[in-house]
Amino acid sequence: MTASTATSHQDRLHEAVARRRPGHSLEGPFYTDREFYDLDIAAVFGRLWLFVATEAEVPEPGDWTTVEIGPYPVVVLRDDAGGLRAFHNVCRHRGARLLGPGRGSVANLVCGYHKWTYGTDGALRHAPAQPPDFDPSCYGLKPVHVRGVGGLVFVCLADAPPADFDEVAARVEPYLLPHALREAKVAARVDLVEEGNWKLVMENNRECYHCDGHPELLRTFFPTYGYTEANLPPHLRAAHDRYLRADAEARATYERLGLPYALIEELDDRVTGFRIQRDALDLAGESFTPDGTAACRRPLGGLPTPRLGHLALHLQPNSWCHVVGDHAITFAVLPLAPGRTLLRTTWLVDPDAVEGEDYDPDTLLEVWTATNGQDARLVARAQHGVSSPAYVPGPYAPTEYQVEAFCAWYTARLREELGR
Questions:
Q1: Which of 203, 303, 331, 351 has the most CB atoms within 10 Å of its CB?
Q2: Where do the Rieske domain residues begin and end (predicted)?
Q3: Whole-angstrom Cα distance, residue 70 to residue 68?
């Protein structure tokens, strides 16, 4: 690429970001063009803290899990001392991938190509047939910033991670700790490739304007999400009254148990945008099941009642999670290509819960498996639509305010990157 071509390329990106109209969806190229995908990797996934796993996936020394963050393969593992570590999943010899997809356990990380061997601390322990002056200390695995927050694992590829994450972690962790997610066990982990841009996956999650397409979820998830008294449609009045009664009961329970529940919503005015709130569920109010009753007989964290509604956490740029009395569900969004995205969903239960005795996997996974499949089809439809030359950005409804917050937050990150 010549200097003039690079300047023209940058100008196009600047102009597209500058044209973004608040309250409206993004222009088509943001979702379809390789140049915007590459910019997203640089400005968002290459610089910010990303949710990639749960501590329950790496419970013991030597346990590991891998993740693909755009072009960056990363391994998260528990070192011999029990601490969290993350490294670029690339051998320092000739670049071979060290560990394949999935999860496992190792004593050392051994490259399957030429048997270079690394400890769980990333240090090179053995490199066959090297000359006498070879210094193994110069060839340890390249580290990635990693930290746990209430049982959730985040990584950052940047040399200098965003400074505000410490504050966000300190405010979020008290909501998570009562559920003891660090000690939980993985009941299931499911990867779903969605045929759409990662932003469409995130935007779809940030609104319930489409939730009539989720009949399983709407049995326990109140359909009034995003509405206020001022804009509540008449057909939702009965559901809203039911929600107010459940909300009053839930707040009394939270107060009695000392569980933080207040809404904190800082989605677009900081680098690490987030939203957290504990809220009521419909029907039995215990879990995401067809009748709202608990899917697992053993409560997370040993809390004395299963009727806790749900704790919802949204984090920019790539995650959300729900914690109910008997289990937790985490979601990580990872870009694969301009029009393809991996959604990784993980279900956590009490560490002593026995499959087939304390919980039925089909019941545990039913609601969110159905919801994920429905959302994947909606995202694919949206991707086809924004790829059309006829597409022009349309206005958001009032209940889509979190989508607007996400797009405002996202374009701010692009402006930062383009101004560097």
A1: 203
A2: 49-155
A3: 6
Residue 296 pLDDT greater than 90, yes or no: yes
Which pLDDT band, with edges at 50, 70 and 90, does 87 fall under? very high
Residue 219: C-alpha distances to residues 239, 291, 358, 419 (Å): 11, 7, 23, 47
Q: CA 201 to CA 194: how far, in whole Å?
A: 8
* Token pair in block for residue 336: 């694969």
The CATH code for residues 166-418 is 3.90.380.10
| pTM over 0.70, yes/no | yes
Can the peptide bond before residue 317 be classed as cis, meaning omega within 30 degrees of 0?
yes
Per-residue pLDDT reduced to its tens digit, 208-247: 889 989 999 999 988 887 788 888 889 999 999 999 999 9
CB 29 within 8 A of CB 13: no
Q: What is the DSSP string of 289-313?
A: STTS--SBSSPGGG-S-S---EEEE
Superfamily of domain 50-149: Rieske [2Fe-2S] iron-sulphur domain (2.102.10.10)
CA dist., res. 420 & res. 409, Å (int): 17
* Sheet containing strand 117-118, strands side by side: 109-110, 117-118, 124-126
What are the structural domain ranges in the chain? 50-149, 166-418
Is it the case that residue 7 has pLDDT exceeding 80? Answer: no
The residue count of the chain comes to 420
Q: What tokens were used for 292?
A: 């709202």
Q: Measured in whole angstroms, how far is the alpha carbon of residue 287 from the centre of its chain?
A: 20
pLDDT above 80 (res 2): no
